[in-house]
Design brief:
The structure is a single chain. It is globular, with a radius of gyration of 21 Å. The two termini are about 40 Å apart. The protein contains 21 helices and 16 strands. The strands form four sheets. The chain has a six-stranded mixed sheet, with helices on both faces. Bound molecules: pyridoxal-5'-phosphate.
Length: about 500
């Protein structure tokens, strides 16, 4: 399998280069040159497999020119060894309603699903390409990617990692998880801006030739652990296929039956992986794209216009507080029938005017998507209603999904299709909002809220979040968003 850029489909790249580089030279995102198809035989084979085996098989469909199945299986086993309980369990909460729990990893959010595998793919890619320079992973995070990337890359030989997060834009738990990170190759910075500021700085560095040369002079190559990196996306395709297989195994559906998938969305990485799974042959009826009050994607799917000229809101689902969803470019590429020139034009519009519009025909091509949003009230209400009705405790991100699914049911009257709601974080990661939703009481101390929540619900606190209060804070620096480049060079020169 070879890869092309969403802004140039004439140059082909091998998977290892794609994983090392993160972003294409032309500023585009790498996409597979075609979608491998899952046959009925593949599904039958997947039915008998463990999650690690399924992951190795599915990832190898994209990387097999350079990575063998056995090699990938070694990585997926190592990657998921420290997950708590099952890796990605599918829980039935009601007739035809399922929750796919993606928060069993070391940071209690779904980013672990990919970021525990990706470091193995990257280190192997460097070996395969005999690359000697150190890799500098730059990460912009709205809260969860940062910690998951730090965990995945800590003390990995030949790699250093720097994480930038919005100083006032993450939950206390998220901030502490990052600020207390251990490891000798990790650096964490708060910036005085929002996620979009952090992401655009990092993306600018990736596409700047001068800066890249400056890094090379210092014997570094920069790469990305954000979901713009293909190495992040491919392990995310796995759980969509795996959960369809679970439904087949438990005989809840027959082969070929369609399902809906509801995904709480920010940077459009997770739901894009679901779209790719559908292109590979998972029978998906609708992909329900759930946004919070920052509903730029809802408006896009409803009007065909992507317009980021709008107020930015801080919400109780901070990992979805995003106005520029980078991965949407990959979907646009498909919607425009892989017309790279048209993508360049649209992305120019986005850069210049912070908006662009797709023609009707392109929107029809992606009408598998349904977009809607939940405001703060909806989100809070869905947590308490869900808990009352099913006994299942949602985090605020997943609750955005639950609320949007209710709106979908009302609007589309599709009550028959089995539906998987993707749970992207454990509720204890956002204890203040969750406790308030179920009790009506606002407690300002996250740790007290955590205890109260445990008392009231009896839900176990994940191992990864216990003891965080006692850990030593290592990183306190807040930097100006204009100073990101300067800080990066200062840090590597001080090494
Ligand atoms: C990152 C994140 C999201 C959004 O995922 P995208 O891939 O950026 O769309 C949703 N919920 C949680 C808890 C997250 O950490």
């Amino acid at each position: 399998m070879e890869y092309i850029s969403s802004r140039n489909k004439n140059d082909y790249f091998k998977a290892s280069d794609v994983i090392i580089n993160g972003l294409a030279k032309d500023g585009g995102l790498y996409v597979p040159s075609f979608f491998p198809k899952l046959t009925k035989n593949d599904f039958n084979e997947l039915i008998g497999m463990s999650y690690e085996e399924q992951a190795a098989k599915i990832i190898s469909m994209f990387l097999e020119d350079e990575y063998t199945y056995e090699e990938l299986l070694k990585y997926t086993k190592l990657a998921y060894a420290n997950f708590e309980g099952a890796i990605a369990p599918l829980v039935c909460v009601d007739k035809n309603k399922y929750i796919l729990e993606l928060w069993h990893g070391p940071t209690a959010a779904f980013k672990d699903m990919a970021l525990s595998v990706m470091p193995y793919l990257l280190v192997a890619a460097k070996k395969k390409n005999k690359q000697k320079e150190k890799t500098l992973i730059l990460v912009a995070t709205s809260g969860d990617t940062g910690k998951a990337a730090l965990e995945g890359f800590k003390d990995v030989d030949g790699v250093e990692i720097m994480v930038f997060y919005p100083s006032d834009g993450v939950s206390l738990m998220q901030k502490l998880q990052m600020a207390t990170q251990e490891g000798k190759n990790v650096y964490v910075f708060a910036i005085d801006g929002n996620f979009d500021d952090a992401q655009s700085s990092v993306k600018r560095i990736f596409s700047s030739k001068e800066l890249k040369n400056e890094f090379l002079g210092l014997k570094y190559r920069v790469s990305s652990a954000n979901s713009i990196n293909w190495g992040r996306l491919v392990p995310q395709i796995v759980y969509y296929i795996s959960s369809y297989v679970s439904l087949l195994t438990s005989k809840k559906i027959k082969f070929g039956d369609k399902i809906n998938v509801v995904v709480p969305t920010g940077n459009f990485g997770n739901i894009l992986a679901a779209y790719y799974a559908s292109r590979m042959g998972v029978p998906i009826n609708r992909l329900i794209c759930a946004s919070n009050k920052n509903k730029v994607l809802t408006d896009f799917f409803r009007t065909g216009e992507y317009n980021a000229n709008r107020e930015f809101y801080k919400t109780t689902s901070p990992s979805m507080d995003i106005l520029i969803s980078s991965n949407l470019e990959r979907l646009i590429f498909e919607a425009m029938d892989r017309d790279d020139k048209a993508v360049i034009k649209l992305m120019d519009d986005l850069k210049k005017n912070k908006k662009y519009s797709l023609p009707k025909k392109a929107m029809q091509k992606i009408d598998i998507f349904y977009g809607n949003y939940a405001d703060e009230k909806d989100t809070e209400r869905a947590i308490s209603e869900y808990y009352d009705e099913t006994g299942y405790l949602l985090d605020p991100h997943t609750s955005v999904g639950a609320s949007v699914y209710n709106k979908y049911l009302k609007e589309e009257k599709d009550t028959k299709t089995p539906t998987i709601l993707v749970a992207t974080a454990n509720p204890y990661k956002f204890p203040i909002a969750v406790y308030k939703a179920i009790s009506g009481v606002e407690i300002n101390d996250a740790f007290v809220a955590m205890e109260k929540l445990e008392e009231e619900t009896g839900e176990p606190i994940p191992r990864s979040l216990t003891g965080i209060k006692e850990r030593k804070v290592r990183f306190k620096t807040v930097i100006k968003k204009e100073d990101i480049d300067k800080e990066i060079f200062k840090t590597i020169k001080n090494n």
